[in-house]
Amino acid sequence: MEQNPTAEMVPLSEVNIPEISKAMAFHQPCQLPPLHDLENPSNKVIENPLERSIKQRLGDLPNDQLPGGLLICRVPDKYRERNKRYFDPRLVSIGPYHHGRENLRAMENQKVRFLRDYLARCSRTNLEELIGKMKTHEIKARQSYSEIIELDGDQFVEMLLFDACFICEIIYRVVDDEIWSTKLGVLGSMVDILSDIFLIENQLPFFVLESLLDVSVIASFVGASNFLGLNQTQSTPPSCEIAHLVHLCYELNIPRERIPYKCNSKSLTVKFKQVFISIKSRFLSKSEQKKQNYNKDPFSVIPSASELCEAGIIFKRKESSILLDITFNKGIIEMPPILVDGCEQTNLANLLAFEQNKGDDDFLFLSSYLSFLMSIVRTSNDLAILRQCGIITFAGTNDEDNALFFNHLDCMITMGSGTNLFTELCGDIKDYYEGTWHRYRAMLKRDYFNSPWSIISLGAGCILLVLTFLQTLYGIKSYIHS
Prior knowledge:
Elements: H1 17-26, H2 35-39, H3 49-59, H4 77-83, H5 108-121, H6 127-142, H7 153-175, H8 190-197, H9 206-210, H10 215-225, H11 245-253, H12 268-281, H13 286-295, H14 298-301, H15 305-310, E1 314-317, E2 327-329, E3 332-335, E4 338-340, H16 342-358, H17 365-376, H18 380-388, E5 392-394, H19 399-409, H20 423-434, H21 436-448, H22 452-481
Parallel strand pairs: 1-3, 4-5
Antiparallel strand pairs: 2-3
Helix pairs in contact: 5-7, 6-7, 7-10, 11-16, 18-19
C-alpha cells in the first residue's frame, strides 16, 4: 500500500480521542432496506404463489347456500362400475360434465335448430336478451356444480344457452303432444333423449330453466313423461327450492310423507315368542343383547319371495298409485304395481343416486322401497312370483336380467334402521315367517292340496276313516250286548 508523501505523522500523544469519538458518532453506518423493499419499491407485500393458488381454489368453491346433496355432481365410481349404462348419456349432453364428448356431437346441430325454434316460439325474446340472461346466471350456475368447470366465460354461457333452449323445446313438445312427430336428424329415439334429460350428471341448474319458461309447464312435462309407471303424488310444483330436473322428478313422484303402518296379523305363537324374548333379554349380558339385536335386523334375515311363499305368505297386487303403500296383514303382502323397462331402470338408478347423495336426516323413501324389493327378489324365480301376481311388469327383458338389475342396485344403498321406512314391516314379516304353524299349514297345502284330485282323495279317505270308526264302534257295542 502506497503512503501519501505529503501526509505528516502526528504523534499519538497529540491525538484528541474524545474528538474522534464525537466524529464517529456523527457518521452512523447506513441501514440497508429489507430485501423485499428493494425488489418491490412501492412497499406492496408480494403474495406467496402457494397462498395465491389456495385462495383461488377457495374462491372457486360451490355456493354454500345450496345443501351439498342438491349440487349437481358426478356419480361415484363405485356405483358406476356395475351400472355405467344407467348414468352415461346416449344421445345428448346437457351441462358441462359430458360436454364435447365425441359420441354426442351429432346432437349439437339439433340444439342450434331448437334454439331457432325457441326464438320463433317466443317472439318477444331475441338472441341478445337470451345471451344477456345467461351471462347473469353464469356465476351462480358455476357454483351449482360440485366440480370446478374448466370452460371459459363465453363457452360456459354458450353451453347454458343451447342446452337450456333444447330442454325447453323438448318440454313444449311433450306438453303439446308433438314430441313423437319431431324430426331429430340423428339416429335415435325420443325415449333415449327423455332418458338422457333425467340423468343425474346431465343437468342444468333449475333456475336457468325457470328463467325461460313457467314452473307449472315443467311440472306438467314430468307428469306427461309418466315416470315409474305411476301417477304423480303431487299435481302442483313443490314449494321447496328445486335444484335440477331430477330433483323435481323426485319431489313429484316419490311421496314425502310416511304412510302409517299397522299390522294385526300377529298370532298367539308370535305373541308368546315376543314375551319369551323380552323375559330372556333381561338375563342376557350387554354383549349378548347387542349381538341379538344385530341378528334381528330385518334386512339381514328377511327371506326371499320363494321362501316366503313356502311359509304360506301370499303376495297380492294392491290398486294404489303410491309406490310406498305396502302392507302386511294375516299372511298377505300387498304391493302397488310398478312398470320396469329400460327407461324406468335408468330413472330408478338416477333417482336412487340423487336420494343417496341428498343426505337428509328424514326417511330415505326410494331407498327403503328398493331395499325391500331387493330383499325379496334375489333370483329369477322370486321375480317370476311378483310378475305372476301383477306387482312388477317388465317390457322386453327376461326375469334373469331384471333380477340382475335389482342386485346391481344393492351396492348403491347405504341406510340405517332410522332412515328405513319398512323396518317394522320387515320385522312383522320375519316373525310370521318363523312361526311353526304357518310353515306346516303351507307344507300341508302344497303337498296334499295342490290339485282338486288330492282334495277329493283326502275327502274320500276321511269318509272311509269315519265309516271304519263307526263300524268298529258298532261292533264293540254288539259284542258287549251279546
